């Protein structure tokens, strides 16, 4: 049930972003719209510390558009924040007054500490990475945030970003490659002054946040013909980063603007951002980058919708994310929880047959939570609709490989249901050996769903005995379970084909 729809505006040095989100019961939420512009508010500030009139007017124009989108959506609560450029501007007060008078928006200027903490909260509540160092390169500042075991340990905000670094080394007659080299040297010198970086656990993963990382992600995905559109949790391999960086730093601006995946509003400043990333990777001896689609705005949204995250992160990121989708899609929660419970029991009871490692339970769990979501589209072939929704719903705390497998598990309505051409589309993520796992989990899910055919939670538990060529499935029931057992037995022929055992349900 929707309680309210809110707007969050993030005014940065390069871009301004608006997200609209429905806040549901229990603090769950879903983003329903967004708008992005690049007014370049911080451009030209390096000379004298003042926001420039042309940039202010472009920003006002952008904020008026944001306000209009909020108004037509009936939004009464707008949380609007400004970061590095406004924080450092000598004409900050007059700018804030003008925004208030012309747009009816009260901008809150975040301190460097507040900004870093919001970014951390956006990441920690949407990713399942035990040890991470977050790098966010904005237009006018760079944030480096280190956490271990979901505890924030250290952070630093450097007073320069993609715009300021570009302006700093432009106009000296340097070639693009020489400029990149200067940025790397400059960035590395600042890293040397951060003593705590030496204490970072060597197993820590690099997490990239912000527009420059999203552009890097899109370019590498296009280059590899990657089959998923999802950005969150995408892994940029070290070799792919080097390929993009080596290309970007040699091209002039016109040629950069023609690169697929590269935003035209970021083409001139991306080389400086990539140079900073390169310097950081080398200094910290880190190779791959995990891209986070969540940052400051998501952190603000969590703190508003789930106030407990101010003190402590969400304990189970995946389950929180799945429950939000269950509510958003209007699924029958009691039935969903019953199917998840029975699927987990089947996975554990049949482990001696399937021999899957524990992490496969996450795949089955995702498929079970969203198995019924496709009914919102239509009853016929709803499993296929559910599969599409799983692939495109931005589920947190799950790898892209597991996401693909969960989608196929949900879509599996029979032993021969996985089409070779559909599976081949994801060959970079899954292999032929994974088909067997998908089929086995698909059978388990269908049995679990059948065992709640009356939507009355009559089956309270399952105990499986494996005797010779048969599996005897004993159900613990409260009430008449004839409909459930009869429905589950219809999966028996597929169970026999995939598990090589006869199925009996008592």
Fraction of residues in helices? 40-55%
Poorly predicted regions are none
* Largest sheet, spatial ordering of strands: 8-7-6-9-11-10
Q: Evaluate the radius of gyration.
A: 26 Å
Q: Give a quick account of the main beta sheet: strands, pairing sense, barrel closure.
A: 6 strands, mixed
Strand content: 15-25%
Mean pLDDT: 94
Shape: elongated
How many H/I helices?
21
Separation, N- and C-terminal Cα atoms: 38 Å
Notes on the protein architecture:
The chain is an alpha/beta fold and 506 residues long. It is 46% helix and 18% strand. It is built from 21 helices and 14 strands. It has helices at residues 53-72, 84-88, 92-103, 112-124, 162-168, 176-192, 211-224, 238-248, 253-257, 270-284, 296-305, 317-328, 333-349, 351-354, 360-369, 382-392, 400-411, 420-424, 434-450, 482-489, 492-499, and strands spanning 2-11, 16-24, 29-37, 77-82, 108-109, 131-137, 142-148, 151-158, 205-209, 235-236, 289-292, 459-467, 470-477, 502-505. The strands form 3 sheets. It has a 6-stranded mixed beta sheet with strand order 8-7-6-9-11-10, with helices on both faces. Strands 3-2-1-4-5 form a 5-stranded mixed beta sheet, with helices on both faces. A 3-stranded mixed beta sheet has the order 12-13-14. β6 (131-137) and β7 form a beta hairpin. The mean pLDDT is 94.
């Amino acid at each position: 049930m929707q309680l309210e729809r809110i707007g969050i505006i993030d005014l940065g040095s390069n871009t301004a972003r608006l997200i609209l989100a429905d806040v549901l019961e229990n603090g769950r939420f879903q983003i329903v719209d967004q708008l992005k512009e690049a007014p370049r508010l911080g451009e030209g500030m390096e000379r004298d510390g003042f926001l420039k009139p042309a940039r202010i007017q472009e920003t006002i124009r952008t904020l008026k558009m944001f306000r209009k989108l909020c108004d037509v959506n009936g939004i009464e609560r707008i949380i609007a924040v400004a970061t590095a450029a406004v924080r450092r501007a000598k004409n900050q007060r007059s700018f804030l007054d003008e925004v208030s008078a012309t747009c009816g928006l009260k901008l809150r200027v975040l301190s460097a500490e507040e900004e870093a903490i919001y970014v951390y909260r956006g990441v920690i509540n949407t990713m399942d990475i035990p040890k991470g160092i977050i790098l966010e390169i904005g237009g006018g500042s760079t944030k480096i945030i280190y956490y271990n075991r979901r505890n924030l340990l250290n952070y630093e905000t450097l007073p320069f970003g993609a715009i300021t670094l570009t302006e700093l080394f432009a106009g000296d007659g340097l070639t693009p490659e020489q400029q990149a080299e200067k940025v790397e040297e400059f960035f590395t010198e600042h890293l040397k002054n951060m003593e705590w970086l030496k204490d970072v656990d060597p197993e820590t993963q690099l997490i990239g946040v912000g527009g420059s990382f999203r552009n890097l992600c899109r370019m590498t995905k296009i280059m590899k013909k990657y089959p998923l559109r999802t950005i969150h949790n995408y892994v940029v391999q070290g070799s792919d980063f080097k390929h993009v960086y080596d290309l970007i730093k040699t091209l002039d601006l016109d040629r950069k603007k023609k690169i697929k995946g590269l935003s035209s509003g970021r083409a001139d400043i991306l080389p400086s951002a990539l140079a900073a990333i390169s310097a950081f990777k080398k200094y910290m001896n880190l190779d791959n980058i995990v891209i986070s689609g969540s940052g400051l705005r998501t952190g603000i949204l969590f703190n508003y919708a789930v106030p407990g995250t101010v003190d402590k992160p969400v304990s189970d990121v995946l389950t929180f994310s799945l429950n939000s989708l269950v509510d958003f899609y209007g699924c029958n929660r009691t039935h969903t929880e019953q199917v998840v419970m029975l699927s987990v029991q089947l996975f554990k009871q049949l482990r001696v047959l399937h021999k899957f490692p524990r992490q496969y339970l996450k795949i089955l769990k995702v498929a079970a939570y969203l198995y019924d979501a496709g009914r919102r589209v239509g009853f016929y072939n709803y499993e296929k609709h559910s599969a599409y929704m799983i692939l495109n719903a931005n589920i947190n705390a799950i790898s892209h490989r597991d996401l693909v497998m969960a989608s196929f598990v949900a879509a599996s309505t029979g032993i021969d249901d996985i089409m070779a051409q559909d599976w081949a589309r994801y060959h970079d993520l899954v292999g032929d050996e994974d088909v067997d796992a998908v089929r086995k989990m698909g059978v388990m899910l269908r049995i679990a769903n059948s065992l709640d055919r009356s939507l009355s939670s009559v089956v309270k538990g399952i105990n499986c005995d494996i005797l010779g060529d048969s599996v005897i499935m004993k159900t613990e029931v409260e009430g008449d379970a004839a409909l459930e057992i009869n429905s589950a037995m219809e999966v028996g022929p597929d169970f026999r084909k995939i598990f090589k055992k006869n199925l009996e349900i008592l």
